[in-house]
Amino acid sequence: MLDVRNVDLFYGASQVLRSVSLKAQPGKVTAVMGRNGVGKTSLIRAICGRLPVASGQILWNGTDVARWPAYRRARNGFATVPQGREIFPQLTVRENLQTGLACLPRSERRIPESVLDLFPVLREMMDRRGGDLSGGQQQQLAIARALVTRPRLLVLDEPTEGIQPSIIKDIGSAIAWLRDRGDMAIILVEQYFDFARDLADSFVVMDRGEVIQAGLREEMVESDVRELLAV
Ligand SMILES: Nc1ncnc2c1ncn2[C@@H]1O[C@H](COP(=O)(O)OP(=O)(O)OP(=O)(O)O)[C@@H](O)[C@H]1O
């Protein structure tokens, strides 16, 4: 289980996270919501080790990993699907997936069939270049690249951004399937309310670097949260 406690984060003198706490449990989706610029991506980067926190704890099954480098967290089960996907356009789909394997021991560096079963379109496109895929296919590739490490914590940053509705549905089904498998904690950063609500077990809403609302999905009052998300 991931237990983020009172994390503060700064860019230079500017504080972008203020005592942020959240939990993520295996078999559950924690949705992180909030308008543009409230600190969601910074929070994800802090969790995955791409940005150093100034204070607070990031407990992973009881161990504080807040000072661990990103590669060590990756080896211990953390995987991220970054905002904007960060696909290598010149590499093939297969090569993009292989980049995800780097944190695994040599003997385990293979692309699991189950990942391709989840996104069959990728199997058909293994030798195509990443840059030739549609936005939705690239998003599926980014999720698959995270999954090849067989993560125990999957963090997705706005996976529906700029994606057409039919593929959003496929991505939602894939996330639900991974959640229901039960061995992975999932953090879903999302501004698309309906998508987040359909998948979430619990939620946090952020504003200006702080968590201003949090609770279980049943406690998520649609009108309140929509208001907090409105620009
Ligand atoms: N590298 C950086 N240096 C300085 N300030 C930054 C940097 N990256 C982000 N910020 C600022 O930190 C704040 C939080 O940004 P962040 O990207 O975490 O928000 P967000 O909620 O993920 O927004 P979005 O949905 O637009 O990605 C914003 O005010 C942003 O301008």
Automatic annotation (TrEMBL):
UniProt KW keywords: Amino-acid transport, ATP-binding, Nucleotide-binding, Transport
ABC transporter domain residues: 2-230
A Pfam family hit: ABC_tran
CDD domains on file: ABC_TM1139_LivF_branched
NCBIfam families: urea_trans_UrtE
Family: Belongs to the ABC transporter superfamily.
Entry protein name: Amino acid/amide ABC transporter ATP-binding protein 2 (HAAT family)
Classification of source organism: Bacteria, Pseudomonadati, Pseudomonadota, Alphaproteobacteria, Rhodobacterales
